[in-house]
Each structure stands twice: as C-alpha cells, then as structure tokens.
Write a structure and sequence with these properties.
Layout lengths: L6 E5 L1 E3 L22 E3 L10 E4 L4 E8 L6 E10 H7 L13 E6 L7 E4 L11 E5 L11 E4 L5 H11 L1 H11 L17 E2 L7 H9 L7 H18 L1 E2 L9 H14 L3 E5 L1
Parallel strand pairs: 4-9
Antiparallel strand pairs: 1-3, 1-13, 2-8, 4-10, 5-6, 5-7, 8-9, 11-12
Helix pairs in contact: 2-4, 4-5
The chain binds ligand A2H.
The site of ligand A2H has 20 residues, from strand 3, strand 10 and helix 2.
Amino acid sequence: EGVAPQEYTAIKMRLLEPLPPVLAKFAGSQAPLETHPRRTLRPETMCGQTNAWILPEGEYGAFEARQPRSGRRILGVVYLCAARAARNMAFQDLFPEWGRPKQLATFFGRELLGAAVKAGRSAPLCPYERIHFLPLLTISMTKGTAIVTSVPSDSPDDYAAFMDMKNAKKREYYSGQAGAELRAEWIDPFEVVPVLQTPELGEVAAKFMCDKLGITSQKEVEKLKEAHDACYTAGFYKGVMTAGPFAGLPVQEAKLKTKAKMVADGEAITYLE
Ligand code: A2H
C-alpha cells in the first residue's frame, strides 16, 4: 500500500462458557482460554462495548499465543483472528515462534455467532459482564483481526448495525444471510452506553449523527462515512470522557491513558500493520 505501518490497539476478550462447538476442544485448559485481539483506533471508548462483530462467511483461525509477560508458552491461550492478521502478528513477538503462526483450529465467523465473551477484564472498563458475537456484513477480512468490537455510542457503523440487530424482522433477515440463528437474548438486554460528550453532538454522538443524516441501516455506507468523520473529529478535539476510569478527562488524554492501562493490565496488545 506504500504507506508507513500504523499502530493499532487490539483488545483482548475472554471467551466464556459454553464454548462454541468449534472451539470446544480448548475447554478445560489450564490457563484461561484467551482472547480476541480486535483492532481498534478508539481504545478510550471500550467502556461502551455492547457486543462484538464477526463476518459470518469469513474464515478465521485459532492461533497459539505467546504469554505476554514471561514469553512462556501456555497451553490454551489462543488468539482468534483472520489468518492474515496472524501472519502479521507472528512477526511481532505475539506468538511462540517468530514468523510461524501455529494454527490450532479453523472456523467460519458464523460458528461464533452468539458466543459470549467478557470484554475488558478490569471493572469499570465495561459495564456488561457478558457480550455476544453478532454479524456485521461490512467487515473486511484483510483489515486488522477481522473481529471488531462494537461501541454503538461513538461508532455510527456500530450504532446502525446494533439497531439492525434490535429489530426482530431485520434480525431474521440477517440470520438468513448468516445461515445461523440470531437470538434476541444476545441483543435485547443491551443498551447503548454513553462514554463521552461533546458540545456539538451531545452524549451519544453516533445516534445524533445517524438520526441527523437519516441513516436507517448498516448498508448506508456513504452516509455512515460522513457520520463517522463528524463523530471522530468532534470526539477527538472536543470530547470529554463521561464514563470509565478516566471520566472527566479530555478524550485525547484518555485515549493514551486507556491504551497504556489496558496494555499494562494485559487486556490489550499493540501491533503494527
Ligand atoms: B473502530 P480504519 Cl468507537 N472491517 O473501533 C471493518 N471495520 C473494521 C475492521 C475490519 N476488518 N477492523 C476494525 N474495524 C473498525 C471502535 C470505533 C471504531 C469507534 C468509532 C469509530 C471506529 C469500536 N468499533 O472506526 O479504516 C474498528 O472500529 C470507524 C472507522 O482501518 C476500527 O476502529 O481506520 C476501525 O474500523 C479502523 O478502521
């Protein structure tokens, strides 16, 4: 692509029981079954997670991970991501063997739909104990881990797709598209969590912009881009955190502090792409 590599923060999420059948062979490992590194540029918004997104027809793998602090190989710690992301990560000391991802399982995104994860392990980073995997059809398999965290308060893409999931008729449609059941219990108990405010866009920037531009579904890609740019600019330059460990701080400061805290706590990794 001819551009300098960019640094990303990938948030880990712990998979919770019951494990999806495709990952059942990892049950009962000594170390806790880890994690989903997902790429995000907005670590400060992680207290607003309501679900995770995966591409139903995308091909993913489970890769043996290197234990971050000691470098020891710990059985049962795996990263779930697209194979392309694993190849990148293998050159960044995230796997036991340099340059060689060890793939322990292969699965389609649809096989993880409904699976529960614990997002952000240190309260008060995330108000929801268990969040679920839901389908997002705009995920690119060649960007990041191809698993995306959902923050509907500040990401218009997430907000539009979140509202799609809340609508029973649309959920049925997406269930047909995905070729997998989508249960109401994976979305209905979850509400948008406000995490920051700006003078222009209020407390729930993504809803404000989606309403303003009349966005009614995740398919309105052009309008969503415009909404995203507005949210990002307002949030970055004028946002003040209203939730999470850095409530009261400007977004620019909270961004760095959240990232540093999550990396130090072993809840996130940074990597280049
Ligand atoms: B962002 P960029 Cl709060 N396919 O994270 C589609 N989208 C992907 C992706 C993939 N493979 N990998 C990451 N992303 C999303 C948080 C967030 C994000 C907020 C607001 C805006 C926002 C919570 N979702 O991004 O084009 C991830 O969603 C708006 C674009 O490579 C990631 O950050 O810069 C962002 O896209 C990276 O997109």
